Amino acid sequence: MQTSRIKKISLFISLLNFSVVLSGYAQVVLPDIISSHMVLKQKSAVPLWGMEQPGRKISILTGWDKKNYQTVADAGGNWKVMVNTPAAGGPYDLTIIGKDSVKLTDVLLGEVWISSGQSNMAFRLRQDSQWNTTQLQVDHPQIRLFKPKRAISRKEMHSYSAKESKWEISTAESLGEFSAMTYYFAVELQKKLKVPVGIINVSWGGVSIESWLPGSTLSEDPVLQNSVARWKQWTAAYEADSIKYTKAVQEYAKTKKGSKPKVPQSMYMMRRPHRQHGVLYNGMTATVTPFALSGMLWYQGTSSVAWAEEYELQLTALITSWRGAFDQPNLPVIVGQLTAFTYEDEAKAYQLRDAQLRQSLLNNVYVVCNMDLGNLDDVHPTNKQPYGLRFAGMALNQVYGKKNIAAFCPAFKYIKARGNRFFIGFDHAKGLHIKDGPMEEVYIAGADGKFVQAEAKIVKSELEVFHPSISQPKHVRYLYRNTIQVQLYNGDNLPAFPFSVNYKK
């Protein structure tokens, strides 16, 4: 059934790649991402790779410095060369010579970022609320786009394909189908840095984080194995659930009694093979490794809320494994915290956001708050520019050293109790203030754990919180619920992260 369908898809992709690779023995074959119009990371040693006849000598001529790099294809026909790039510039030619030669043109040197996630990261620019204006301003020859073909696979794939994916120059025609969030990020980066910017988007709507995790990583921890176990359970239950559901639907159609039957989770998932663990890493991410990157953007979480207790470990594993796959152990990563929406389980939505924020404890990982950008009635807010600008602000501040650009949102730092009041301190709290009247989304509780809306005000850069009926507060929460009443900001007009704290002396 669905399992056999996935196997057939994977087999087809494997055979396609294998046939193309075999034909490559007669000539130099390059992965899709190494092509004309690409951007290579400036001032770096960048990998170039491909296939040729085993034992064949490969020469690479770089147009920017006229050097000749050489290597030999190994027994499997694979070759890789590290090429040095100078400061940003171009366009240049790049020639790879084996039995024949391939000349790549219009190659730029600059900054290269990859973005990934689910539907909000995949959200196309032509769907954006500003598209009618934006499409008149999108001709940016210094911005280049790469979007791998959507594909799933049970094995890590390489894109020695029919060139269905290619680098494109930013125009209204090429950008309409590209990630809006990533585009706005790139425009701001290019404007501030004045260098070429290449953006690679690998995303797919409606997927959980485990779809982007490599199989080798999933096997490393029992918690990461939970997603594998769930898929096995859905696979085993699919046939029986399908029969039961079909009978229930038929019975409902006859009698109209009770509620309309809900599709069992096994059926829902098995009809969406792209949600299986590892298949998008294998089919999409692996095809662009180990292209040299400047950094990574991540925005995902909606489809993972149900398993929020696993998310912190999953996201840490994803960051670590992708850094390894791209051979960049300290690759800068910027995580966009999940924005507001009416989630069925708001406690789990908070837990997932907190798991995202905790990634900032990792080296060279940064998190931006987006709670004020959401729409409780629409899981896909249509204005993606603010998201892209928050990503760009963090990249410019932390990766490129432009400290004058606002980047950090206030984050909980400490809590003190005096009498019946809490005093809460924050990192990045300069200019801390409350917008638009009394705060609505601060709640406080005593030992009984019954939360009530608190009174709050700013006192010397601390948030003072209390309620007259609670003499000994023990718990405090901010933006814990499904809400867009975001009112706590710093002087850079960036919103404070949600927090939930249990006070202990």
From TrEMBL:
GO molecular function: sialate O-acetylesterase activity
GO biological process: carbohydrate metabolic process
Domain of life: Bacteria
Key word Hydrolase present: yes
Keywords: Hydrolase
Pfam family, one: SASA
Keyword Hydrolase: yes
Coiled-coil segments: none
Domain (Sialate O-acetylesterase) ranges: 111-233, 286-384
InterPro entries: SASA, SGNH_hydro_sf, SIAE
Record-linked PANTHER family: SIALATE O-ACETYLESTERASE
Name recorded for this polypeptide: Sialate O-acetylesterase
Source species of the chain: Pedobacter psychroterrae
